[in-house]
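Write out the bound-state structure for magnesium ion.
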Amino acid sequence: MGWIGVDLDGTLAEYHGWLDKTVIGTPVKRMVNRVKKWLAEGKDVRIVTARAGGRKPEVLQAITDWCLEHIGQALPITNEKDYDMVELWDDRAVQVITNTGDAVHEYLDPVVLNHIKVCGRVVVKAINSFRKMEGFHEKDND
Ligand SMILES: [Mg+2]
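---
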């Protein structure tokens, strides 16, 4: 079946700059819900993070604690890919089309791509403002 890799900083947890190796940001709700759904479906989900380099016990414990608190279970933690990794969700990844060297974003019209970037920021700001509104409850499902 293979496993799904999920990056931590900026993907599963908010990242606004480095604070400490054991300080992990607040959960990105939509991504956390996606991971919970995968786990409920029996999928093998693993945290892929550079923080796991060196396998420092205090760092691994901080990540495990974060997973327990926000996902409800501990997940395997690694900083390595292997042949069974079928997907990697990562805010720094650029998807390429197999055997071509082509980036997926190169197929998007530059005007459309710029529009997505600009509007994406506007939409994120609007969503964040909306979330702060009194009485708003976030959707718990993906
Ligand atoms: Mg990241």
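---
Residues 1 and 20 are 35 Å apart (CA to CA).
DSSP finds three helices and four strands in the chain.
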